[in-house]
Every structure is written in structure tokens, then in C-alpha cells.
Amino acid sequence: MHYKPGLKLQKFIDSVDLEYEFHPASYEFPFLKWEDFLALGNDILKNGLKSEIELLKDVIIDGRHRYLACAKFEVKPQFKILAEDTEPLSHVFSKNYHRRHLTNGQKYNFALALLKEERVKAKKRQKRSQFAGKDSNNRPIHKSSVETTLDTAEENHKKGKALVLTAKDTEIDPKTLGKLEKIEKIAKSNKQIKNDLKDIILDKKSVEEVYRKIAPPPKKLNRRTECDEFRAAPCPKCYEQLMACRLDLKAGKLVLRKECPDPCNKNANTKKGL
């Protein structure tokens, strides 16, 4: 879910001619409220722009509020151009996630976006590991130990499942993040769940509350049922023999393992041992 600016801020954006647009990744974080935006502008007007506005391929990746504040209060903005191979979502995450006071819903929203990117990276890492040390004809390439170490050093700290890595970075419980991913998947084809997902992001509903709607029913335990002869056993000495009469409840059907023996010569009406 991409956030939109408030009415007043959107009205201001529409009223000015902006030279630069905002990167889509920046919309993963909410916009400032109008009052907070004015406070930021007054601070820049008084103390100057202390942090540069970052550009990635001619779009603003970080510092959109500072850029808008400079436009409103007529302060000359200062820019910093990032390398073209910068990963947008990861960069926005490092700049904003731990610095801003985000609600749980806002953290969940960004974590879902980050998880998608991490899964793409995981597939690329998997392909690289499959074809590591091989040429285009799938033949092994002999490298020195130093070269191999340098090639893999950067990837070593990234190993692991995408879900676990994202949960660790965002400080969200892996089980909760896994449930969120399942909710988002079902929300694509279910309008009710889609609205529920929005309520989670807006902190109106909890993850557990929505997940209960889509969670599969709990599996029935394999209960063991005794046959009539076992329940009516007249003699404790027949216990081991009567254990063969037990039935398993599997897929809603009783399956008889062995034919029930005649316990303690039942037909003779013997009641010894009672």
C-alpha cells in the first residue's frame, strides 16, 4: 500500500511546479501531517538545510519533505546524487525505518514491500550459487582461493530465508510476518480480506484477528478408539491380547487393524479376575 499526502499537502504540491518527482519507493512511508510539514519548513528557514536531498536517476529517493519545504519557504535545496546501482527500497529502509516513529501498521506495510524485494534477491542468490565457478557452457572455472573468498564475502552475511532476513531487519516476529504475507496473497482476490489488510496497516485490526478468517481449520488428532470387546473385557489378563482390537480414526473412518479375539473365552461367560 502506497501512502498519499494529506489534503493540504496535496493541494500545495499541485499548486507548485516541481522540478523533480518522487521515487515510488518513497511512498512506502507516510507523508508528514501539514502542521509537522510547516514546522520542518520553519526550521529549515531558520537553521538552513542540514541534510542533502538525495537523487537516484533524477528522482528524489530521500528528502521529499525537505524538498517541498524548500519550495514553500523559498530556500535553495541542496542535492546529493546516488550511485545508479543503489537499491531503492533498501536505501529508503536504512534512511527512514528506525529513524521515524512508525506505528505497527506502518511497519507491517513496509515489511511486506521489503519482503517482496528480498525474495527476488534470494532467487538471484540461489541462481548465482548454482552456477558459481562455471562458465557459460556450465563448465567449471578454476579460481584461486583468494578470488573465491572475495566473490562470496559480500553474500555470506545475506544467506538465509528471505522471511527470516526481513523479519530480523524490521524487528517483526517471523510468524507474524508470514501471516501478513498470506493475508496479502489472499487479499489480491478477496475484497473483504483486502479491506481487512488496509485496516491492519491503519492499526484498526490486528494481524491475528484477520488471519483467523483465512487460517485453515486445525487438523484432527489421530484419536484411538477401542472396540466393544475391549471396553467389555472381563479380565485384566487379556489386556495385551485385546490391544490388537484397537481402532485408528483416520480421515473420518475407523480402520480395524486385526480381528478382535474372543477375550477370556467370552462365550463361556467367564468372569475370573474381577
Question: Key terms for this structure?
Answer:
3 domains, disordered C terminus, 274 residues, 12 helices, alpha/beta, 3-stranded antiparallel beta sheet, 8% strand
Topology of this structure?
Blueprint: H1 7-15, E1 21-22, H2 34-47, E2 53-56, E3 59-62, H3 64-73, E4 79-81, H4 88-96, H5 104-130, H6 145-156, H7 162-170, H8 174-187, H9 191-201, H10 207-214, E5 224-225, H11 228-231, H12 239-242, E6 247-250, E7 253-256
Parallel strand pairs: 1-3, 2-4
Antiparallel strand pairs: 2-3, 5-6, 6-7
Helix pairs in contact: 2-3, 5-7, 8-9, 8-10
The DSSP helix count reads 12
Rg result: 32 Å
So what's the overall shape?
A: globular
Strand order of the largest sheet: 1-3-2-4
Number of domains: 3
Structural class: alpha/beta
**What is the number of strand segments?**
7
Uncertain stretches of 5 or more adjacent residues: 143-157, 223-234, 246-260, 266-274
Order of helices and strands: HEHEEHEHHHHHHHEHHEE
Mean pLDDT: 77
Helix % is 40-55%
List the quaternary state of the chains. single chain
- Largest beta-sheet characterization: 4 strands, mixed
Please give the alpha-carbon distance between the first and last residues.
Answer: 72 Å
**Strand residue content:** 5-15%
Give a written overview of the molecule:
The protein is α/β, with parallel strands linked by helices and 274 residues long. The chain has three domains: 7-96, no CATH class; 104-214, no CATH class; 224-268, no CATH class. It is built from twelve helices and seven strands. The chain has helices at 7-15, 34-47, 64-73, 88-96, 104-130, 145-156, 162-170, 174-187, 191-201, 207-214, 228-231, 239-242, and strands at residues 21-22, 53-56, 59-62, 79-81, 224-225, 247-250, 253-256. The strands form two sheets. The protein has a four-stranded mixed beta sheet. Strands 5-6-7 form a three-stranded antiparallel beta sheet, with no helix packed on it. The chain is globular and about 65 Å long. The chain starts with 6 loop residues before the first helix and ends in an 18-residue tail after the last strand.
